[in-house]
Write a structure and sequence with these properties.
Length: about 425
């Protein structure tokens, strides 16, 4: 077998998007230069159609453009059409992806309404089947995708590597003049699992524009190495995500560190930030992080960005922090309405600054900015609109007045849809 690997692939030109074949998923296009798509996954019991539909709606309204659900039992598969119906009644038109492991071929065959209701199927080549059954069970899912005209994500995962593939590559490695280390062999097994499965899907009849690939690991450097290599060896659309990223700041930091490098190199057509939510916390946190990552990198715009200083000994108590929080929460609450009503409002920039050092200058760079008084400064807060000082706020009602200025600016500066 020829050595197709590229152990040290050259990174793509910074900022230049890697060419890929576009894949249509419902009304969403992944790849082919389309905007990078944000997706998420539910953590409800899919058998509970009501709670699953509710969480899908929450994720979609937060900005998730694709939502994946677990389909692991006959009852879960039977619930999928009911979930789709509930979403339609709520006016939520987000593509739903079915996540299949072990028994996906059986579930799709026994529940044709599920196969029809899903917008895409996700298959893990490491556990789609074992031994002699692997090829036939993989083929059965691909044939169902063909029957119902559904795209497929072939998602290899570090935690469920195809052991027969690993054994084959270990044997190959022994014949090399300079053997690879174990991590390189594991990376190659992950990539080959995805690429060989995609080739098999095409041989069965699934077109290239119906295939998305992913190769997920839980280590930042490993993920970067895997995707650089994978991107250099194919033109399939790629889904990015650091699997088992973790909870809170650790998960956010790890995912951002890995995905930012790849996105900057033009690699990636759709992303998910796999965060473990705090107990009782909303699942939508991972959607917001994904949006903020793309927006701060200048790759997409989702919601007005609020620039705020971190605070220091010059700033007055916590007032500017409270104002920044109030503005940020107001923007998040209003954005679903603004997105429907106004064109381009997601590009609005805001600044909430705490003292005279950088306050006026930073405020002038934003569409709307306020420079609050720091320690020893005059008790007044100049407001800048599009670079010009527009007014000065004083007193105890600055927060409400500033939010009102923001609302008035949106209504007067952005074109209302349908006008």
């Amino acid at each position: 077998m020829s050595d197709k690997s590229s152990p040290n692939p050259r990174p793509a030109e910074s900022g230049k998007r890697r060419p890929s074949v576009g894949v249509q998923i419902g009304k969403v296009i992944v790849g082919s230069g389309a905007p990078i798509v944000v997706q998420s996954m539910t953590n409800t019991d899919t058998e509970d159609a009501s709670s699953t539909a509710k969480q899908i709606a929450e994720l979609a309204r937060a900005g998730s453009e694709l939502v994946r659900i677990t389909v692991n039992t006959p009852a879960a598969a039977a619930a999928v059409p009911r979930i789709r119906e509930r979403l339609e009644m709520m006016g939520v038109d987000v593509p739903i992806i079915g996540d299949f492991h072990y028994n996906g071929h059986q579930l799709l065959e026994s529940e044709p309404a599920c196969a029809e209701a899903l917008a895409k199927y996700r298959i893990n080549p490491g556990n789609v089947g074992f031994g002699k059954k692997k090829d036939s069970q993989f083929a059965a899912i691909i044939e169902m995708a063909l029957r119902y005209d559904k795209p497929v994500r072939i998602g290899a995962n570090w935690g469920s590597l195809d052991q027969s593939m690993v054994a084959t590559l270990m044997d190959e490695n022994h014949t090399r003049a300079v053997p690879w280390d174990a991590s390189h062999v594991a990376r190659e097994a992950l990539i080959r699992s995805a690429l060989d499965s995609a080739q098999r899907a095409e041989e069965i009849g699934l077109a290239r524009d119906r295939i998305i690939l992913s190769c997920k690991v839980s280590g930042v450097q490993e993920l970067i190495a895997v995707y650089r290599d994978l991107a250099a060896r194919c033109d399939y659309a790629l889904h990015l995500g650091l699997t088992e990223a973790g909870m809170g700041s650790k998960g956010i930091t790890a995912s951002s560190a890995a995905l930012a490098v790849l996105l900057q190199e033009g690699i990636g057509d759709t992303i998910r930030i796999s965060l473990t939510p705090e107990p009782g916390a909303s699942r939508t946190g991972e959607v917001i992080v994904a949006q903020e990552l793309l927006q701060t990198m200048g790759l997409r715009a989702f919601t007005p960005l609020v620039t705020a200083c971190p605070g220091c000994g010059r700033t007055t108590s916590e007032f500017f922090q409270e104002l920044a929080k109030t503005v940020q929460e107001h923007v998040r609450e209003q954005m679903p309405l603004w997105r429907v009503k106004y064109d381009g409002v997601e590009n609005l920039t805001l600044a909430v600054m705490g003292c005279v050092v950088n306050g006026p200058g930073e405020s002038k760079h934003a569409n709307i900015g306020i420079s609050l008084p720091g320690n020893g400064e005059a008790p007044s807060a100049p407001v800048f609109i599009d670079g010009e000082k527009a007014m000065t706020l004083r007193g105890d009602n600055i927060a409400n007045e500033f939010v009102g200025i923001l609302d008035n600016y949106v209504a007067s500066h952005y074109h209302a849809r349908g006008d």
